[in-house]
Amino acid sequence: MPTFRDRPDAGNMLVQLLKGINFNSKVWIAAIPNGGVPVAVPIANSFQKFLYVMVARKIQYPWTTEAGFGAITADGTTSFNNLAIQRENLTESVIHTQVDRAREEVEQRTRLFRNYLLPNDLTSAEIILIDDGLASGITTQAAILSLQKHGTRKVIVAVPTAHRSSVNVIEAMTKSDMQFNVQVLSPDIRGGWSFAVADAYETWYDEETSTILKILREYNQKYPISSDLD
Known about the structure:
The chain has helices at residues 7-18, 36-47, 82-87, 92-112, 138-149, 164-171, 209-220, and strands spanning 27-31, 51-53, 56-60, 68-73, 78-80, 126-130, 154-158, 161-163, 181-185, 188-190. The protein is an alpha/beta fold.
């Protein structure tokens, strides 16, 4: 049974949950486009903050665009599902080819979203990382590793719906570096084999990049990027 009307409604619910978390003065809001942006707008607005994007894309299997065995971010950070690679007997050649294809797509999207990218220096920053759901979690893992590489010490992954096993994997990333903390915040954590992000929404459709760019442009006119760089 759906939990949210649509992505903005889900974002409003996350706003209420985020009120219970303490942040320092250097908290930044970043969404994984496309679907994460409409969820993130109410959150960024509640903090009166500029809305950034974290460009990350799934590394797809060669035979389908619906699933993948890894993910890559704009700075080249990767995360792989080694069990999936072994299960599908993917060769090094196939892996390299698919990584290169994903990298090309990331580079193209990085150019499109160039006005909304997080800065390279994220020392002491606390990031609220937002997407419209957490299924396998592989794309989110790559995004978190990238944030850690650039100096972030605290990441709150705010997602309307999530698979329980993926939540466990994401939060276990904290253990690899005791000075780096990751927490998943979600009002709808589910289990089972039939999990699908879309099931949590009454209205679900793929967001067009042109629409997402329009949302970012119109929203970010309210809060200048310079306020985050002070």
